[in-house]
Amino acid sequence: xxxxxxxxxxxxxxxxxxxxxxxGPALEDATRSVGxxxxxxxxxxxxxxxxxxxxxxxxxxxVVLPNSAAAVEMYLACALLGAIWxxxxxxxxxxxxxxxxxxxxxxxxxxxxxxxxxxxxxxGRVVTVEELTDDxxxxxxxxxxxxxxxxxxxxxxxxxxxxxxxxHNRAAVSLTASVMxxxxxxxxxxxxxxxxxxxxxxxxxxxxxxxxTGATCVPVERMNARGVxxxxxxxxxxxxxxxxxxxxxxxxxxxxxxxxxxxxxRLAGTxxxxxxxxxxxxxxxxxxxxLVGSYGMTEAPGVVCIEDCDAPHEAGxxxxxxxxxxxxxxxxxxxxxxPGHEGELVVSAVATGEFADLYRPAMxxxxxxxxxxxxxxxxxxxxxxxxxxxxxxxxxxxxRQADVILRGGVNVNAAELEAxxxxxPGVRDVAVTGERDERLGQRIIAFVEPTSAGELDSASLRRxxxxxxPHGKVPDSIIVRTLPRNAMGKVARKELAGGVASRVP
Length: 505
Hints:
The structure is a single chain. The protein is an alpha/beta fold. 25% of the residues lie in helices and 27% in strands. It has helices at residues 36-52, 69-81, 94-104, 129-132, 170-184, 200-213, 225-235, 245-253, 277-287, 414-421, 458-468, 497-500; strands at residues 25-28, 33-35, 60-63, 84-87, 108-111, 125-128, 150-155, 165-169, 190-193, 216-219, 239-243, 267-271, 290-297, 302-306, 320-321, 325-330, 343-349, 364-367, 370-373, 381-389, 395-400, 404-407, 410-413, 427-437, 441-450, 477-480. The strands form six sheets. Strands 6-5-3-4-7-8-18-19 form an eight-stranded mixed beta sheet, with helices on both faces. A seven-stranded mixed beta sheet has the order 10-9-11-12-13-14-15, with helices on both faces. The longest helix has 17 residues, at 36-52. The chain is globular, with a radius of gyration of 23 Å.
């Protein structure tokens, strides 16, 4: 039977610090188990240490941590202090880390002792979690900031170039996380978070809902399919967050991963976009575990729609909007379209009931000149995605308004890659496109035009790309050729399709 959602005022994420009455572990990584009674004191120790390290309310704190209990504690410590959390993937290339830090200008960079040497080039003072926790007797005793102040910055995949530094306040995060707890997590769950916790959405829809429910959040460091399967088996996971199509494909097709390894799971969450119905069915047949589709984005924050795990799956659907949200397809004049008609998907607050007008999208974006707020009247989120909404409320996402490649469950912006690859020596111009792939959803194909004939080769370009791009954004194939152009001198992208067949991996 589907779980009923009672309209309530959402609790604050800082209320999680005072749940000593809850039993069992709140957080459990490979080396530490943190009980609910310990969570509040641990977070207050970190907040006090951040203050001593020179962090003030409103300062940005760049967090370069692997998936761990400390990653969740640090997020809550920033919220308690009034600092702005910024996640940076410890596995990202130095160039990517530096680009993100240059935008937010952090007061401090928090990492581990093992990773500290790799963070010395980043802007801001580098401190380690080991240093911040060396005086457990000193607790932060200040009053928490208002829920309306910025709490976190998440980097979007973008739709028109470089990813935006999207700013959220505590009220928006609390609303999403607390409602997600009610619709998908049970008290006895062990929720595995398998994508990097440097991605803000993974905290909002994975770690925090588990804590709101009184369940256990289990950060997983090994994020490939065998690592996920081992974590399920060894750590008795019952709920997985954000399985991407690539991992689902490998779980299905790797004969070393047996159904028994995932036997503890009761459900696994996934984004519906980019996941074929054939692959979904193969996963569910092999493991006997329901894949629960969803749709979300950095700007929301987190999830917008999710499937009811007790209702039959509808092919191509991402589920219904969360109870405080409304999703509409709109035409080019921003008019709502009738059910079944495709247009740009727009997210807004529901107009009636206890959740009426509670929702607001991201506060704005952080630029090198500081916070640029949304216009006060701009209370809807234009997603940049195309799709339609059925008469039953199920949302179907059909593609992107802009040219974004969905590779392995991650939105990769072609314009961003073109801008970065175009700066490599000997490159005159670049055109990046996607090619359908059964395992990844799409492969990234980069067509590179050299400044002079014979000066570039695909292998050397790929090595250079690996130095400046995150692993998931490195082109799968690079083709060196003269780019076709139209009468206006712009690249004729449709003509590039024939070049894919002769690509050089």
